[in-house]
Structure formats: structure tokens, C-alpha cells
Amino acid sequence: MSTTTIPPVTAELEWNLPSRGQVAMYSLITAEAAIFTIFVVAYLFYMGKSLSGPMPSEVLTPPILYAVCLLSSSLTIHFAGKNLRDGNVRRFGAWWLLTIALGAIFLYGTASEWHRLIYKDGLTITTNLFGTTYYSLVGLHGFHVVMGLLGLTTVMVFTIFGMVQREHAERIDVLSLYWHFVDAVWVVVFTVVYVIGR
Amino acid sequence: MSTESIAWPSTAAGSRSFVETLHEWVTTVDHKRLGILYIIYALVFLVIGGIEATVIRIQLIRPHNDFVSPQVFNRLFTMHGTTMIFFVVMPVLFGFANYLIPLMIGARDMAFPRLNAFSFWMTAFGGLFLYFSVVGANGLYGAGNAPDVGWFAYAPLTSQTFSLGHSTDFWTLALLVSGFGSIGTAINIVATVLCMRCPGMTLAKMPLFAWLNLVMAGLVILAVSPLTAAQIMLLVDRYLGGHFFDTQAGGSAVIWMHFFWIFGHPEVYVLVLPAFAFASEIIPVFSRKPIFGYPVMVGATVAIGFISMSVWAHHMFTVGMGAAANTFFVISTMAIAVPTGIKIFNWLATMWGGKIEFKTPMLFCIAFLFQFLIAGLTGVMLGAAPFDWQLGNSYFVVAHFHYVIVGGIMFTLFGAFYYWFPKMSGKMYSETLGKLHFWLFVIGFHLTFDFMHIPGILGMPRRIYTYEPGRGWDTWNLIVTIGVFFQAAGILVFLGNLIWSYFRGELADNDPWDAWTLEWSAHSPPPAYNFALIPTVKSRRPLWDLKHPDDPDWKYE
């Protein structure tokens, strides 16, 4: 069998490639952004096309406090990552826990809003086009918050058992990217649903 | 020079039981095994989808035929389209990408081997789920409940009112699940190409195969996600009583068309870019010349990627979108012919003055060049809105896109099968059978799809169950169906060749084609670790440099 030899690594070559975790997360975020784009387009397209009430202007109030909670969690997760890179695991844990708490408060906000809409205002996903698009878009975002929180909680458990160290900072940063994305999407959803759509 | 391979702890080769082998394959995370799983899976569905096509054509062989019932006919064309796109061409292309990209860029595996296995099994379960509808949703033949809403499943056909039972749900969920698999694979390909290249392989020195698959993966990420979103909306409509596509409650059927084709048109380029990738590897090797205009090829690929995101509504000229939208989509559709044309000229220029060897893979690629050109020309014709108003939804359209998918994609795919078969199996295929396959398939292809244009021009709509005699369609439909049997015979020769060569073929060299990319420096078939030592490259043709140390490529690039 004739063979072709493989050149060995001879010269010292300057060879740096991007981190595959970061690249993959940016790719995932691109895919997710495309999904959200379709839902946002559907929301905008169906704005004011409902044949019956309730209409957004009658039942929606912007949940500013909860939005502030979610957006500030981007800040806290940033501080958490910074502390981990500095090797300060305890402070990392504290900031991380705060991030989870803020995310959970946001979810509580969505839940109470939905409860009010369903039981007081009688708006469900079948009521009209507004209900269909509203619950789909906000629900899709809420689902992403839940997924993010599951990831964050997993890291928190590992942290409590002392399994997160400085060398994991890069992986933690990849997860943080996803959380930042979830927050950024909320800016869009908030603008579309509570500002333009009302 | 380095050693060829390192000793690998042999786990008592030859004495493994069937269950152990099966367990190894089911739990594998090796990119080569997953690639082969993808390919075999796709071949199984190719046979299924091919049988469906044959039954459709037998039904249409003469007027007033009743070979199958109208209900079964609807299911057949729906399943044929869905199967061929999602469970044949996409998996087989992912299979080749999986198998070849790490080998071509000098890596030991994909960036995320476990994600890779996850993606394959998602795709696999998607296909099984789609076909489970035949038994899972209300019984067998006749009473069966396979999806029957067409492969693009226009609203309101898919609403609860018009699609009773669960057949449409099977269709939606199958595509949703396999879509997750596709997105996972695409992310993996992007990460692999960007982050796993061996030292020296800058982006400008990557094989074109890697470049084209990188753009393909980017398109999958951008195009399959909207389909996922649309499928979620359809599920909301069907299960939760939503109104996205419910015109009774103010919803819109046209927006489903938009959402579907925002996926559907880039999807065509998802399928054709890997076909271009095969041609870009095979044509230079059998012309004994480096590819002509490498940077232009890369630029044209990226341009196709961008433009393909803005042409979707040329599938919807007959909807009545208004002059502005029609004009925009006509112009963008015409524009995409430019980078595609550049590619055709580059392949021709690669062959020009070359020492062409007419081996089976090259024959398929040459046929591809001619057929893809014609497919592109009818594409430009249909891209003109007034022409499309006349022939939209006719057999002319069916002939056009089969010219792209069979004449373009399938032909390079067959070329790729023959070209890389020695690498994947370690055996040579039979050149005689390969040529027989080629000629049977060329004759069958042209009988079927050349003549399919004519009943389209004469007004025969697509998807009709049967037709009246005396409209001038009869003879053409007869010829079209005769062509199918030539193609089927070609496919049987092809499968026979693969199986026979795998068990009885001659042993293949590591580098039977005297080729230039890194995969040919590994053993045939490559060991689990691919390369004993990670190679370093200095040019686009590392094996040329190695074989011709007196005149290496890197002096000129």
C-alpha cells in the first residue's frame, strides 16, 4: 500500500483560533434571533387586526419594575464573571445568586401579569389575534428565561459544592453570553409589545 | 518524516458480537461514523422517496389512470417532497460534511462530538416520526393518515377544520425535531471550520469544500430557524386554538407562505452549496489543475449566501403582492444568477486546458455543469414575474426544480459518492458499474425532466391526480414515466455497486486519485484519531507541496 506521509509540526507557528464555545454560542444566538424575528414580525403584522377585544391598550401596562430587574441581571452576571476571572469564587457565587434572583423575580412578574390577564381581563391565547401573538411572543421569551435560569442554577449548584474555579471562567462567560442575549431580546419584546403595540 | 499511525489498543478485532458492534455504532461520537450513519440513513430514505416518485409517475402514465386513489396520491407527493428534502438530501450532505470537514482541515473530530451525535439522532427520529404517521395515525393503506397537505403545507389546508386527525401534526413535529438536529449540526460545522483548523490553514488556504460548507451552515442557522418558528406557530394554532393562520379570526394565510419561503428558498442554497463543494473538489483533481479563481469562488459563495436571503417571495408572484414587491423579488432573483454564473465559468476554466480524466465522479460533475446551467436558465425564466404568472404551479415549475435538485445536486452527490468511496470504505468501486449507473441515470434524467417541461407549457398543473385525454399531454407523460424506470435502474446499479464493492472490491490506496487535500493523507479508511500527528499546511494544496517539494504551491499563492 503506498502511503503519503503527513508533514510533522516543524516550525513554531503563531496559531490562534477563536474559542469554539464562543463561536458556537454566537451561532446559537443567531439562530435564536432568527426565531424571535419571525415572532416579532408576526406580532407587528397582526397589530390592530384583532376582530374582538380585549385590545392591548385596555389591558396592558408596561412592567417597568420587572424589566429593570431583568436588565440589571445582565450587570450582575457581568460582575460575577469578572470576580471569577480574578479568582474570587465567593464573590462570584454571591453575584451569581443575585442574577438568579433577579431572573426569578422577572418570571414572577410575567406569571402575575398572565394571571391577571387570564382571570381578570379574560384574555387567553384563543381569545383573539392579540392573545395569540402576545402569549406566543412573551411566552417564547419566558421560555428562554427559564432555560437560562436552569443553566445558571446548575452552575450555582456546582459553585456551592466548590466545583467552579477560576479556570472555568471561559465556560461561565459562554453561558453569560446567552443570558445577555435573553436580556437583549426583552428590550425588543418590551418595545414591540408595550411601546409600539399599545 | 513522521510515522503513519500510532498503535491503537485493538479491542479484539473480528471477535465482536453483533450487539457489541451495534452498541458501538449507536453510541458513537466519532465524526466519521456519524457521517456514515447520516449517509446510510439518507440512502434508505432515498429508496423510499424514490418508490413514492415511481408510484406517482405510474399513476400519471396515461389519462384516467387509477393506479392509486386520489387520497393516496396526495399523501404520496407530500411524503415524496418532504422525504427528499429533509430526510435524503439534507442528511446526506450533513453526512459528507461531517465525514470530510475535519479530515480536510487537519482536525481529529468536529468541535462538539456529542452535539454531533445528538443532532444525528434528532434528524433520524424526525424521519422515523414522519413515517410513523402511516401506522401511528389511524391505520394502513387507504385508511392511512400520512400527511397530505403538500410539502409546503399552505394554510388553511393545515388548520384543524381541513386537516382532521393527526397527519399534519406528524408532519410539523417531524420537521421541528429534525430542524433542531439541522441547527445543531450547522452550529457544529461553523465552530469546527472556524476553530479547529490545523496550523497554517488560514481561511484563505482552506479547501473550497470547507468554505462552501461554512456558508451552507450559516444559511441553515438563518433559514431553518424561521421554519422552526413557523412550525411552533402552526402547533399553537392546531393545539392551543391560536389564530396565526386562521383567516376566520383575522389571521393570514399569506404570512405562512412568507414564513415558509423565507426558509424554503435559502434551503435550496443549503442544498446546492454542498453540491458546489463536491464539484469544486472533484473537477480540479480530474482536470489535473488547481481550481480556477479561488478567491472569486469564495466571494461568489458568500454573495450567494447573502442574496439567497432576499429572494423568497419569487415563489409567491401568483399571490398578488403588488408591483413594488414583485419588482424587488424579480431583481434579487436575477441578481443571484450572477455569482452562480461566475461559479460555472470558474469550473469551466478549471477544465480548460486540463488533462481531463473521465472517471465516474468526473462524468457526473460534467453532466452537472450542463444540467445546472439549464436549471439556472429556467430559473431565470420563472424569476420573471409575468412569465411566472403564466407557468406558476405548472409542471414547468416541477421540471425546473427537479432539474436543480436531481440534475444539479444529485449528480454531484453521486460524483461525491464515487470520489470518496475509496476513502470511506478502503475499497475501490467498480468503474464499469459506475459508468453504467451514469449512463442509465443521464438517459433517465433527460427523458423524465426534459420532457416534463412541455406538458407544463401546455398547461398541465402540478399535483393533479389524473387528467383528460386529448389535451396534448398524453405522450409527454408517457415519456416522462419511461424515464423514471431508467433512473430507478441506475439507482439499483449504484446501490449494488456500493454493496458489492464494499465486500468484494479491490483494496484502495490512501490516495487513489493523486489528489491534493489532507483527507487523502490519512489511511483508507481513516483511523479513529484521523492523523497521528496534526499536520501543518502552507498552501491550498498541501499534498501537492509534499509530492512536489521542488515546486510547491506556497511559492506562488
Describe, in plain words, how this protein is organized in 3D.
The complex is a heterodimer of chains A (198) and B (557). Chain A has 198 residues and is mostly helical. Chain A has a single domain (20-50, 64-196), classed as Cytochrome c oxidase, subunit III, four-helix bundle (Four Helix Bundle (Hemerythrin (Met), subunit A)). Chain A is built from 6 helices and no strands. Chain A starts with 19 loop residues before the first helix and ends with a helix. The mean pLDDT of chain A is 93. Chain B has 557 residues and is mainly alpha-helical. Chain B has a single domain, classed as Cytochrome C Oxidase, Chain A (Up-down Bundle), CATH 1.20.210. At the A-B interface, helix 1 and helix 5 of A face helix 5, helix 6, helix 7 and helix 15 of B.
Short description, anyone?
The complex is a heterodimer of chains A (198) and B (557). Chain A has helices spanning 20-45, 56-59, 64-85, 89-119, 129-160, 169-196.
Note the main attributes of this structure.
heterodimer, A: 198 residues, mainly alpha, Four Helix Bundle (Hemerythrin (Met), subunit A), 6 helices, 72% helix, elongated, B: 557 residues, Cytochrome C Oxidase, Chain A, 15 helices, globular
**What general outline of chain A do the C-alpha atoms trace?**
elongated
Oligomer: heterodimer
Which CATH architecture of chain B would you pick? Answer: Up-down Bundle
CATH evolutionary superfamily of chain A: Cytochrome c oxidase, subunit III, four-helix bundle
CATH topology of chain B: Cytochrome C Oxidase, Chain A
Pairing-aware structural class of the strands and helices of chain A? mainly alpha
Per DSSP, the total helix count of chain B is 15
Portion of residues in beta strands of chain B equals under 5%
* CATH C-level name of chain A: Mainly Alpha
Mean pLDDT of chain B: 93
Number of strands of chain B: 0
Number of strands of chain A: 0
